[in-house]
Write a structure and sequence with these properties.
Blueprint: E1 9-11, E2 22-24, H1 32-40, E3 42-45, E4 52-53, H2 60-68, E5 74-77, H3 89-105, E6 110-116, E7 125-131, H4 135-144, E8 149-153, E9 159-163
Parallel strand pairs: 1-2
Antiparallel strand pairs: 3-4, 3-6, 5-7, 5-8, 6-7, 8-9
């Protein structure tokens, strides 16, 4: 019998790169409740458009932004609270500055944002929407900054949760 979340978890293969799923390295060590919470987060991009991204939901404004910026893909990434360990604001700010510097060195343009769960039970995490970041690059950044997951969006403008652990 499958759980409600099991339909969202598949092993990543090249043929599935544009499907509406959560990608993971099987088996994930993350708790199913945490994965579900990640799936529910509003990924809010600071821009003039309505750019609140949700896992598995097409966003026409993001599609337009990708077109304007000649973006084939993008990722919503953070360096805050590595491995879900709550750090102080100054610690998270330093990590975010390091991530911004890393993106700058790679010549990746990005917009600031925040990942916020709709329940409001925990603070939002500062994040960046990195334009023209490949899935492999997004995974690499997530691992570098010790994140459990990143959000990657292909040319279909449908955000996908990529579990890294």
């Amino acid at each position: 019998m499958s759980s409600p979340i099991s339909k969202w978890i598949v092993k990543l293969t090249a043929s599935q790169s544009n499907s509406n799923v959560i990608y993971t390295v099987m088996p994930s060590v993350l708790d199913a409740g945490l994965i579900l919470a990640y799936k529910e987060i509003n990924f809010i991009v600071n821009s003039t458009q309505n750019l609140t991204l949700n896992i598995g939901q097409f966003n026409p404004h993001l599609k337009a932004l990708l077109g304007i910026r000649n973006g084939a893909s993008c990722a919503f990434v953070t360096a805050a609270n590595p491995l879900s360990e709550n750090l102080t604001d100054p610690e998270n700010e330093l990590l975010q500055r390091n991530l911004a510097t890393d993106l700058d060195h790679r010549r990746i343009s990005f917009l600031s944002g925040v990942g916020q769960h709709p329940s409001g039970n925990w603070p939002g995490e500062p994040s960046y929407l990195a334009i023209n970041l490949s899935l492999k690059e997004a995974e690499g950044l997530g691992r570098t900054y010790k994140q459990n997951a990143v959000v990657w969006i292909g040319s279909d403008a449908i955000p996908k949760l990529v579990l890294l652990r």
